[in-house]
Sequence to fold (282 residues):
Amino acid sequence: MFSLAELETVIPLVRTGVPPTPQYAWPLLKAVTGVEVVVKHENHTPIGAFKVRGGIVYFDRLKRERPDVRGIVTATRGNHGQSLAFAGTRAGIAVTIVVPHGNSTEKNAAMRALGAELVEHGRDFDDAKEQAERIAAERGLEFAPSFHRDFVIGVGTYAYELFTAAADLDTVYVPIGLGSGICGVIGARDALGLRTSVVGVIAESANTYSRSLAAGRVIPTNSAFTFADGMAVRAPDVTALEIIRCRQRLARERLPRGVLDDDDVRERAPDIDRNAVHGQSG
Fold:
């Protein structure tokens, strides 16, 4: 996907907008799980999520290659859109974002506050994506997909920070939405020559990646309604799926292995937050 030299080249660019985030091994999480758990705190970025890193890389390339671009349009459930709104405003490029009806009001407000035009359309992410593509054609805008090499190498910088701070990790667990995060982790791991296993985590009711990997081809689902909205997609990205499939054939990955239902997410997320943050305060 990318070399170590390529990854290290984009690190200074990403750090113009995102200082390195911390990673901590929390004692209470060890007490609960029986193993040392290192949490990478990407909630410390300007948008509270890792995706901002990819947005910065994407707009840097776009502005150099197409300085006269009229603007971009994309679809999101929140973090991808916040990333492009943040980075687009920094680059001076207009950003239009399509979200499904019923999307998080907090994330919608954040995207607007970051300078994006917000359009609501459809029942889920995939409906919103189709509308974004139509808007791109109608307005002459650049369509920004949710999976792109710029995003992968950009978010790979958080994995670089994690691996260089804690190089002896046995396993890294990564949630899968459309795949930029997990592909960035795999790419950084490979570029650094590490043997850490990578495990993909999906929502049980948004299981297109596990079904597609099992079948060896894209298997879309009819719906993807889950509390974990960042993982709510009905079809995998073809390139991301192939990257993961290739790594599976090398017998390094167990992807996806972690499967959570919505009750798991609702019950466990507060426990993780409490044990990793509130339980450690003095």
